[in-house]
Each structure stands twice: as structure tokens, then as C-alpha cells.
Design brief:
single chain, alpha+beta, two-stranded antiparallel sheet, about 15% helix
Length: about 170
């Protein structure tokens, strides 16, 4: 039974880290080249059932998403205001160059948000976000109209809605 207690504590800690869905959860997802850290890269890949190989945050293996209303290379995100509580940005510390793990061939970069939510990681010029309804690595509950996981493998990511009982829904701005 001690194993079950340990698993419960780990799950509770992960849920607490994610449930904040604000800057503290997102800013802890940094790391990568230039950060002075030898931890995992900022972005990694994971095979998620029904979605194929997708991008996840390197620090916690949580699925990241892109918003269809964001324009690649614009330097901004259309997800502002109350949208951030459902779709917190994947951020790194100022001055950090985000790193990419094996199998990631797209361009990884950053934008500086003008709303006080830090330096957001981008993939192929589009900002990356978490979904507040994902509670553990491998969850991909945020694949709603306008929001999608970021496919990196030969199996395309699904763009169909995937509603959950976790709440949250999608928000367009």
C-alpha cells in the first residue's frame, strides 16, 4: 500500500502544479539551451493515443497546443485576458533560449508577451500554450475547435473536438 500512497502524493503534486494555470505553472516549464541548466530541453515529443507524436513541455511532459487565431511570425498571441486562465502560455525565463529534443525539426523560438505573462515559447512562429484541463502527462483534452496539439511525427494530430468532464472548454480571445 505504500506505493499507492506515493503515487497519490505524486499525482496530487502534479495536479497542484497544473491547476494554478497561471504564471507559476507555466514559468516552471522552462529549461533548455542557454538557461545554464542541464535539465531536459524546453520541448520534447511524446506519442499520445489518437494524436500521434506531439510536442510536450520538456520539464513536465504536458501536452502543448497552438491557437488557430495566432499568426505565425507575428510576435504576438491572440490568447489574452481571460483566455490565459484556460490556456496558460509555455514560458521560459527572460534571456533563455528554448531547446528542442530529439525528433523536433521545426523552429523553436520565443515572443515577449505584452500582458505581463513573460517570454512565451513558439514553434514555427506560433505561440505554445498548455490546457488547464490536462492533469497528467499524456492528456490531450484541449483539442477543441481553434486549438490543436502540435504534431511532429508521421501520424497527424487530430483537430476534432475532444470535450472532457474536466471543464474549461475553449476560448477564442
Amino acid at each position: 500500500m505504500p506505493g499507492a500512497t506515493a503515487r497519490g502524493l505524486v499525482a496530487a503534486a502534479a495536479l497542484l502544479a497544473i491547476s494554478g494555470c497561471g504564471a507559476s505553472a507555466a514559468t516552471s516549464s522552462g529549461g533548455g539551451a542557454g538557461s545554464g541548466s542541464t535539465s531536459s530541453p524546453t520541448l520534447a515529443t511524446m506519442t499520445i493515443s489518437g494524436h500521434g507524436v506531439v510536442l510536450v513541455a520538456g520539464s513536465n511532459s504536458m501536452t502543448v497546443y497552438q491557437f488557430a487565431q495566432d499568426v505565425a511570425g507575428s510576435g504576438t498571441s491572440a490568447c489574452t485576458g481571460s483566455c490565459i486562465s484556460t490556456w496558460p502560455p509555455l514560458t521560459v525565463s527572460a534571456g533563455t533560449t528554448p531547446g528542442a529534443g530529439a525528433g523536433i525539426t521545426g523552429q523553436v523560438g520565443t515572443i515577449t508577451r505584452t500582458d505581463g505573462h513573460g517570454v512565451q515559447v513558439t514553434y514555427n512562429g506560433k505561440p505554445l500554450h498548455f490546457f488547464s484541463g490536462d492533469t497528467k502527462p499524456g492528456d490531450a483534452n484541449g483539442n477543441y475547435p481553434g486549438w490543436s496539439v502540435v504534431a511532429t511525427g508521421s501520424t497527424p494530430a487530430s483537430s476534432s473536438p475532444s470535450p472532457t468532464s474536466a471543464g474549461g472548454g475553449y476560448y477564442g480571445g
